[in-house]
Design goal:
The structure is a single chain. The protein has 18 helices and 27 strands. The protein is an alpha/beta fold and about 550 residues long. It has three domains: about 180 residues, Alpha-D-Glucose-1,6-Bisphosphate, Chain A, domain 3, CATH 3.40.120.10; about 220 residues, Alpha-D-Glucose-1,6-Bisphosphate, subunit A, domain 3 (Alpha-D-Glucose-1,6-Bisphosphate, Chain A, domain 3, 3-Layer(aba) Sandwich); about 130 residues, Alpha-D-phosphohexomutase, C-terminal domain (TATA-Binding Protein, 2-Layer Sandwich). The protein has a seven-stranded mixed sheet, with helices on both faces. It has a seven-stranded antiparallel sheet with strand order 20-21-24-25-26-19-27. The protein has a five-stranded mixed sheet with strand order 11-10-12-13-14, sandwiched between helices. It is globular. The structure holds 1,6-di-O-phosphono-alpha-D-glucopyranose (G16). The site of 1,6-di-O-phosphono-alpha-D-glucopyranose has 17 residues, from loops.
């Protein structure tokens, strides 16, 4: 065992979901080690505890795992459970942490960001409840990184993590386990696998795009092997260190191969994609895209069709920028609707306290109290369960019927990626300084503008500066935020929403239906003048 002297690195501050940086930053001597030691120093006594470790298979995953194993042994852990091949999706990590009651886990992923030697890497700690560390923990980790002077590690050869089995590392046991089995078993308890199997047998067809990221092995096992979908249902199923050169972000831009298939003649009935670490999902029907906010609302409204949710929901939670479609379902069901800041970590207390059962975010995240992370394949299986039960109705039929019943929260997000950080900060400061209440903008009157602040209803913790809201008297709204997950410059996100009760207008393209609000947003934030951009990079 060695104690290695080190000095702090600036900027090891976890963002929306852990520390994400370029690989070139992570491979600097001591960079990863400092952060891992800061985690171990911040989470309480690690002696005799068990830790889960795994990642999305991206470049540097394997190297990082070997380092973390050696450091865990030096820091007194009794056991580390590692997914075979270093593979473990984020929701599966949460499942395993909970099932085996470990002292949390370390997940290696930069989620939907590209991978490879010149791309991104990431690391985060999940707490024993299975969810991302709350801000109190991430702030303690960050504070520790700023004063760290040494870390503990043991020397030794790399372990074989590609075969199931047990190894010794100093006094610590390393167990290499099947990363798919526990997760697949959990899914079988939640959904009607017989009904879904019957649908596939009677000709229902789907495509799942794993985007050469972590969900490939999970999707093959569950969709093709256990549910009997045709071989080849899963495309891009082999996890690759650079995701095949793609951008593993399941949206209309980056999941273009899937979009092409679902919009071609003879398209399958259902399409879905997941991201780098398997927690995000995009859902499509034949020639029909389901926005994540609508997906949450539809899943909530139909949840009792699934065995795991047959007893009904305790509540529905969504992040603030997510559309209010789910709130309408909650109102009808007579259950609470919660509005949290962006970041799955904010759902943890609500789920632990039994105040919410389903949660969702506009950023392609949906999940429930079965784990403490959002869960891409879970959402796909829930859709499959609902489609199997509402036999004969297509995805489009189900969503349109939902809008007819509840009205449509027309919604879109415009991202301006890779803009200058100083310009982005100045833009936000400008918005923060505006006092708009009562003003007429276009045909709208401003009811309130503020910077969203949240007091956790369970533990009372307060989070401020969580996004600028401009809410109009008719309930329409525009939200501005800077992403907390990028690694280059800043990404400005503009979220636009308007409620449309008139069924005759539900077919309209959101970009058309929201055109006047989009113009107001651009003018208010002076986007072109401040960033030099006259178009968003990605529209979802
Ligand atoms: C993470 C968080 C999500 C959040 C998303 C986008 O997702 O877990 O809760 O909605 O980032 O955050 P931002 O708008 O700050 O970029 P993931 O899939 O990247 O872990």
């Amino acid at each position: 065992m060695k104690t290695v002297a080190t000095t702090p690195f600036a900027g090891q501050k976890p963002g929306t979901s852990g520390l994400r940086k370029k690989v070139s930053v992570f491979i600097q001597p001591h960079y990863l080690e400092n952060f891992v030691q800061a985690v171990f120093d911040s989470i309480g006594d690690t002696t005799g505890k068990t830790l889960v470790v795994g990642g999305d298979g991206r470049y540097y995953n394997r190297t990082a795992i070997q380092t973390i194993l050696r450091m865990a042994a030096a820091n007194g852990f009794a056991k580390v459970m590692v997914g075979r091949g270093g593979i473990l999706s984020t929701p599966a990590a949460s499942c395993v942490i909970r099932k085996y009651q470990t002292f949390g886990g370390i997940i290696l992923s930069a989620s939907h960001n590209p991978g490879g030697p010149t791309e991104d890497f990431g690391i985060k700690y999940n707490i024993p409840a299975g969810g991302p560390a709350p801000e109190s923990v991430t702030e303690a980790i960050y504070a520790r990184t700023q004063v760290i002077s040494s870390y503990q590690i043991i020397e030794g050869a790399d372990l074989d993590i590609d075969h199931l089995g047990r190894h010794s590392l100093g006094a610590m046991v390393v167990e290499v386990f099947d990363p798919v089995a526990d997760y697949a078993e959990l899914m079988e308890t939640l959904f009607d696998f017989d009904a879904i199997r019957a649908a596939f047998r009677s000709g229902f067809r789907m495509k799942f795009d794993a985007m050469h990221a972590v969900t490939g092995p999970y999707a093959v096992e569950i969709l093709e092997k256990r549910l009997g979908a045709h071989m080849g249902t899963v495309m891009h199923g082999e996890p690759l260190e650079d995701f095949g050169g793609g951008h593993p972000d399941p949206n209309l831009v980056h999941a273009h191969d899937l979009v092409h298939i679902l919009t071609s003649p003879n398209a399958p009935d259902f399409g879905a994609a997941s991201d780098g670490d398997g927690d995000r999902n995009m859902v499509m029907g034949r020639n029909f895209y389901v926005t994540p906010s609508d997906s949450l609302a539809v899943l909530a409204a139909n949840a009792t069709l699934c065995p795991g949710y047959a007893k009904g929901l305790a509540g529905i939670a969504r992040s603030m920028p997510t559309s209010a479609a789910a709130d309408r379902v909650a109102a009808k069901l007579g259950i609470p609707a919660w509005e949290t800041p962006t970041g799955w970590k904010f759902f943890g207390t609500l789920l632990d306290a039994g105040k919410a059962t389903l949660c969702g975010e506009e950023s392609f995240g949906t999940g429930s109290d079965h784990v403490r992370e959002k869960d891409g394949l879970w959402a796909v299986l829930m859709w499959l369960n609902i489609l199997a039960k509402r036999k004969g109705e297509s995805v489009a039929d189900i969503v349109r019927a939902h809008w007819a019943e509840y009205g449509r929260n027309v919604y879109s997000r415009h991202d301006y990626e890779g803009i200058d950080s100083a310009a982005a900060d100045a833009l936000m400061a400008h918005l923060r300084g505006l006092s708009l209440k009562g003003q007429r903008l276009g045909g709208f009157t401003v009811a309130l503008n503020d910077d969203f602040a949240y007091t956790d209803p369970v533990d009372g913790s307060v989070s401020t500066k969580q996004g600028i809201r401009v809410v109009f008297t008719d309930g329409s709204r525009i939200v501005f935020r800077l992403s907390g997950t990028g690694t280059e410059g800043a990404t400005l996100r503009v979220y636009i929403e308007r409620y449309e009760p008139d069924t005759a207008k539900h077919h309209l393209d959101p970009q058309v239906a929201l055109a006047d609000l989009i113009t107001i947003a651009r003018d208010l934030a002076e986007i072109e003048a401040r960033t030099g951009r006259n178009e968003p990079t990605v529209i979802t």
